[in-house]
Design a protein that fits this description.
4 copies of one chain form a homotetramer.
Chain A: E1 6-9, H1 24-41, H2 45-50, E2 53-54, E3 57-64, E4 73-83, E5 87-96, E6 102-111, E7 113-114, E8 120-121, H3 124-127, H4 129-142
Antiparallel strand pairs in A: 1-4, 2-7, 3-6, 4-5, 5-6, 7-8
Chain lengths: ~140, ~140, ~140, ~140
């Protein structure tokens, strides 16, 4: 199994006056898990940016199922669902690390832009071939 | 016209290393506009919470169309789209305040929970009748 | 009077589970007020950055006097206290906009770095003379 | 040695358009390290709050020494410096986890308030005696 589950504990400053994690933070948790996942597959954001390639979010969504709380340990599962060279999509699950209970789900899509070429869209295969290969190889291993 | 457009300037701390607003902040901008909108219609969150009623987000989504930048003035349009007493839904548009250009769109859905009754779902009509009436009256005026 | 007080309402997402504004947000409020203040004096951050000059915070502090709450309207007073060409210092007061009650105070210091010269420290007089003049002129008017 | 160093990687959303961590986030890193430290000594925030005791920040400060970046692994050292039963103080160091280089330092002070008694100040010895003992025992072990 290539993919290590991403674990993190809820911080105090991520709660709001309802006493739960503010929903906007799930989008940040998704990013953390995606960054870890891409790193692990060899197509990390830090690496891409050394080639001037950024991969901004084009759309995202989240469904809240059960509130999460300060000091709760969470697992954020991040699964690559689609990749066609110019666009990459992920799905997420936020789980209680102890009980396995599902707390939230989400999705995000990303394009690739070349900051050295006026932020125009680019194909990863052309701009960072080794990252492209890493993604394809990961998809094959994972049966995606 | 009942609804005043919600204006706000992008803060420095809301940008990320891409040089644009981090996408998670749009969810916070949506909240700001929704809070202002609900206040204006007489069903504000501060008021609801004096009755022990909270209205957490059950799901939300966002589509990024054009990056926004530090010091850019934005208008965040928030439109109530559905309300059935136990659930309320909104749509959002983030526009450049100068050019009117569309930068992002979004949606959110919310339920009502009674913190004085074990956080169980509640109908607004029952728990805060005047807020329920205010929403209905707003919908009628706006032709929703 | 040159300086317009900076007003802003506390957002829901800025509260934490204590029910008050999370203290880290005051540092962000200070930044908002400072940005507005520098803009008004003609030495705005957006302008500086067109010359490749950034002014990162070198140190900052905050004293919390009275908790602030969701939907509370605040005035954040920002006063330039020192400027010697290579360093600029500010003091802040967070006040309830209705009662004038003092809720927090703070300080920050900033240097100037030239992103076109390996992020080396720079004198504003040399790198953006008109901003330097604007600051001096402001200090004279304000009797600093 | 009682105290495990607190490690964490810089998140993308914590950077700003300068390309570095936004300074306000250090206050959040301090909190994360303090929460871990208090947990380890048996006087954790989660525990205190079960007794209705909160420990808000009364003042804090930070000195930035060297910018930190996305994906950088940091150690945040948190040291209890003073405790007199009604007030607790900490100092912090943010270090690069690889090189040990010092990136920032900070301080914070906290009081104890009883949410079951109108948020009045309280002595920890009276409100949560076992947490008081845990802090004293920790101070003895650490030679503070």
């Amino acid at each position: 199994m290539l993919h290590t589950p991403y674990r993190r504990v809820v911080n105090y400053y991520e709660t709001d006056m309802m006493g739960w994690v503010h929903h906007s933070n799930y989008i940040r948790y998704f990013e953390e898990a995606r960054v870890a996942n891409l790193d692990e597959m060899g197509a990390g954001q830090a690496k891409l940016e050394t080639f001037g390639i950024i991969s901004p979010v084009t759309d995202f969504s989240c469904v809240n199922i059960k509130p999460t709380r300060f000091a709760q340990e969470l697992i954020i599962e991040c699964r690559l669902t689609k990749y066609n060279g110019v666009r990459i999509c992920f799905e997420y699950e936020v789980l209680d690390a102890t009980t396995g209970e599902l707390c939230a789900t989400g999705k995000s899509s990303h394009c690739f832009l070349n900051t050295n070429n006026n932020h125009k869209p680019t194909a990863l295969q052309k701009s960072v071939p080794e990252a492209h290969e890493a993604v394809l190889s990961y998809m094959e291993k994972m049966g995606i």
